[in-house]
Specification:
Layout lengths: L5 H10 L1 E6 L4 E8 L3 E4 L9 E4 L5 E10 L4 E6 L20 E6 L7 E11 L9 E4 L11 E3 L5 E9 L2 E6 H9 L5 E2 L2 E6 L8 E7 L4 H4 L7 E5 L2 E2 L3 H7 L6 E8 L6 E10 L10
Amino acid sequence: MSIPGFGEIADELRRSTVLIETGDRRSGTGVIWGGDGLIVTNAHVARGPAVRVELWDGRELEAGITSRDPQLDLAALRVNANDLPPVSSRDSSKLRPGELAIAIGNPFGFVGALTTGVIHAVGPLGGMGSRTWVQANVRLAPGNSGGPLADARGRVIGINTMVAGRLALAIPSNAVQQFLFAGPRAAWLGVTLNPVRVPHAHTFGLLILEVEPGSPAARAALLPGDILLGADEHPFHSISDLARSLEGRGERPLRLEFLRGDYARVRRVAVEIAERVPERSSVAA
């Protein structure tokens, strides 16, 4: 199928896509959301304190993390530039299965790599809780995370996040807009998470990818590789369930159930959570 102007659409999308490098030499992708220097990517891409952004025209800029939500797996960055080409976004609730999908990213160091496919569905994925995903049969690889998923007109409909089976999963553009304009959460845990299918008898869990030093999770001795199953005797069916368990103000214990090691035994720990202090407002969990 030939799409008039497809080459120009792809080039415009590339110009609004950036390469993100962190201090540990990991790389990923970001999307220029505002011409004033606002860039959106995944929280699991923008993990380290030092983030460097390479623009399509070759400029390299230091980026500050202005907000970060590991539960949603989204992060907002800011660079000191006012002449950036922002993307246009589309209402992701209006997507329909069968529409063309375009993904841009930097897999394995190949900058600006393009892949296409079609929208498979918009909604929850079996075994992944109730969270809504834009699901597309585009081929993604490490380095695509944080990049744009766009429609045939180049309008961004999601932020590519992970692969489940043969489908690429993207955070819907509507969720991105809500993240950018929402206020900070009342309490924080200090972890970067990824929804997973849990081995053995359990069907859903939240895999801990990273624990922030000095966070409530670190003080409770939670570790990367642990899988969170529930809180206060309520099992997690989606990542939103953890968000709800963190709502409220004041110091209080949060009793978590989790798996570790061979994942054969359910463990329990009480984590003391509280409101985030201002200097930690760039990390939400």
